[in-house]
Structure formats: structure tokens, C-alpha cells
Amino acid sequence: MDTVRINEKDNVCVNLETGHKIALCDIPEGADIIKYGFPIGYATENISKGDSVHSHNMKTKLGDILSYEYKPDFKKPAPEEPFTINAYIRRNGDIGIRNDIWIVPTVGCVNSIAKQLSEKTGAICFSHPYGCSQLGDDNKVTQLVLRGLINHPNAGGVLVLGLGCENNNIPEMQKVLGTWDDERVKFLSVQDCENELEKGIELIKELKNTVSQDKRQAVPVSKLKIGLKCGGSDGFSGITANAVAGIVTDRICAMGGTAVLTEVPEMFGAETVLFDRCVNKEIFEKSVKLINDFKQYFKDHGEPVSENPSPGNKEGGITTLEEKSLGCVQKGGTAPIVDVLDYGDTVCKAGLNLLNGPGNDIVSITNLSAVGCHLVLFTTGRGTPLGGAVPTIKIASNDTIATKKKHWIDFSAFGFNKQEKADELLNLIKKVADGELTKNEIQGNREIAIFKDGVTL
């Protein structure tokens, strides 16, 4: 049986056939189970060397909201010469790696019209059920996420489609937008026109005429912003796909580029690994608030802070949230953390950023898109067809799922030469940035979902 010990401090190894944990020594009841060099739970009974270690004999140590001390421990990556990608340069200096026409509804009531316009014109519509009967901050989050999509540089043109009587009507949405490019962003309130399909098609034709003049130009990869996301993890995720994504993160940051790590609940139990990499006390305090506010959100809804690994995660060998989190944060590599972002923010600092939001796959991808990521690296051990508004590169943690679901998976990270795999993944990122379609784009799997935590009238 082939196994791997991830860190010299570990008292468990990973079975390379199943992804499950095996005790490397006798572990007494109550002692810590160590993986990735950190505790992932404790033994609920005496465990003998060679025994399987999983839900039957270990349990999480996660509990309440905690206090933390800033103990900076990071190194700035050595600069690396950026390679060149071919992208569309926008009027404000941003770049886009796609030049699509998007239809963004202000409210769920017009989703069917958006779909009809999409079918008739080839524009991509992003339907959602919100924008009406929402109050306060809940409505604000909807507006901020939609603002991020409307302003996204991957969209060559956007039709903002409203009904007219909704809370988030077009005039209210325009207040949140502030400014926009009239040649690139068009608005249509369907209650205000006689034939909304004819008018919508006319506006999309105008956008297509504008977009048709755009040409790709060579720009350094330092202009690129990548999002980091995992879903359907397994016992290999933290040692293959996430680890390879982490190497890529470090290299992109070393080239002056930007990476964004989200899924706050999947930082629980691994937060100190991140806190120690904050570039200063201010960013550390913002990171602590990010974690503790999300723990409070759990508590406010009567849910345990430690409840996270899904049935699929557990079947794949992940036992506790700490274990999942320590594997999850591998995607962030070792780069220093330069900023902490909230809903509605736009990523502007080169380097590794943390982003508020849940672990839910489609909400996470939407959040990453809304802050300005050009593409998302989505690692998975179970496989998923999911894709967001931006190209979603699906990275398998094992060859089995990569072979079985080749129409979903773009890249397999399974292997023991992580540097070689990282080189291959960087090459794929360059191709996608230059215009090569990801599997989610080929399949037409593009969706959004907006985080909701408020009152609906």
C-alpha cells in the first residue's frame, strides 16, 4: 500500500489509493491527530499504529470565537519575470480575457426575458431570484454583486435588464454603479417599452457593434487576477490539486499578479496559518474580523462552527473541518496576505487577498467574479460541471475523476512532481487567458448565485 506523509510533524499518513488517513504510531485517546503539521482533531479512543483514522475514532476540536495574537511569519516571494498574455485593454486600464456580451437582470422577475434575449442573440444571461422585496443590507449585497458583474472587464458589453417596479430598479442600480461607459453598458426597463424583445435585441446589436472593434493586445501576466476555489474535496485535494494551485498562486504573485482566496468557513481551524502571513497589523485585524464575524453568523443561526465537511468530503477521507480547511488554504500557497475584501469591493492590491463569503460553490465563484477575478482555479476531488461568469478551470485532485469526467475537468493535478504540474497549469492559464475555452464555457455552464442573509417582504 502506497502512502504519503505530508509533514514531518504528522502522526497520520494518507493512503494513495483511497485518500483516507492511517495512523503512523500509537495515538492515545484525547491526543491530537496531526496532518499538514497542525491538529485536525483529537482521538476519541486509543488508536494503534496502522489503524484507519476517520469519523469513527476522531473528532473536531473547533469551538467558539477566539482571540488571536499577531505573529508575522512570512517571506515575500522572489520576483519572477512575468510572461505575456493577450487580452483586451479597457478604457480604464483594466484588462479582459473575454469580450462577451452579458445580460444582467436587476430582478428575478425578468429572468425569462433575459433567457429569450440570450437565445435570440447569443448574449450570455446571468439570472438570479433577487432584486425585489429585499430590504437593507440584504438588498445592498445584491446591488454590490451585480455592480461587480456589470463592471467586469471580461464583458465587452452589458445589457442591464430591469422590470421597473422592483426595489432594485434601474435608477437605484445606477446610483450604486455611479459611472459607466455608455458604449459598453445599456439599460432596459421592460415596463417602459412596448416590445421588450425587439428593444433588447436592438440594444444588444449596438453592443456587438462596439465589441467587434476590440482586439487582443499583449500585456504582462501581472495584470491577471485569479480566483481560488475548491469544491467536492477528497483526501488527495490538499496534497495534489490545492498544493499545485498554491504553487501557481505564489508564482503569479511573484510576477506581480493577483490572487483571491475565499470560502471563509473553510479557513476555520487553519486561520492562524493565514494570520501569520498578513503583511501588517491592520490586515491581521481585518482577517481576524473576517473569521470571527463568519463564526458569529453561524452562531446567530444556531449552527455549530465546526459543521462543514459534506457527505462527499467524508467519503473521500476528510473527517473534520480543520482537516478540510488546512487542505483548502493550500491553494493560497505561501504568499503574504495583502488585503481583505468584502462584498462589493474590487480587488486592487497585487498579491494574495482574502475575500468574505461562504464555501458554497456557486456563491463563491460569483463573489470571486464580482471582485474582478478574470478566471477561477476550481479544484475538486469529486467533480462538478459548475461554471461561473468567468472561465472556471476545473482541476482534478485525482486521475480517476479527470478520466471519468473529462467533459468537466480541464486539468489533473495528480502526481508527485508538483513543480512540473504547476508549470503545466500555468501554461493552461496562459492559453485560457489568450482565449482558449474552458470546459464550463464549452458546455455552456455559466451561473451566478448571490449570498442572502436578510428579510424578504
Throw out a few tags for this protein.
Archaeosine Trna-guanine Transglycosylase, Chain: A, domain 4, 7-stranded parallel β-sheet, 4-stranded antiparallel β-sheet, 457 residues, Rossmann fold
Summarize the entry for a quick read.
The protein is of the alpha/beta class and about 450 residues long.
Description:
The protein is an alpha/beta fold. The chain has 3 domains: 3-59, Archaeosine Trna-guanine Transglycosylase, Chain: A, domain 4 (Roll), CATH 2.30.130.110; 100-211, 3-Layer(aba) Sandwich (Rossmann fold); 221-443. Helices cover 30% and strands 19% of the residues. It has helices at 111-121, 136-150, 170-177, 196-211, 241-254, 271-275, 281-300, 311-315, 321-328, 361-370, 399-404, 418-433, 439-443, and strands spanning 3-4, 12-15, 21-23, 32-35, 38-43, 52-53, 58-59, 84-89, 95-96, 100-105, 124-125, 155-162, 185-189, 217-220, 225-230, 258-261, 337-341, 351-355, 375-380, 392-396, 411-412. The longest helix is centred in the middle third of the chain and has 20 residues, at 281-300. The mean pLDDT is 94.
Helical residue percent band: 25-40%
Mean pLDDT: 94
Distance between the termini: 58 Å
State the strand order across the main sheet: 17-18-16-15-19-20-21
Unreliable spans: none
What sort of overall outline do the alpha carbons produce when their principal axes are compared?
A: globular
Provide the gyration radius in Å.
23 Å
Please work out how many helical segments DSSP would assign: 13
Query: What characterizes the major β-sheet?
Result: 7 strands, parallel
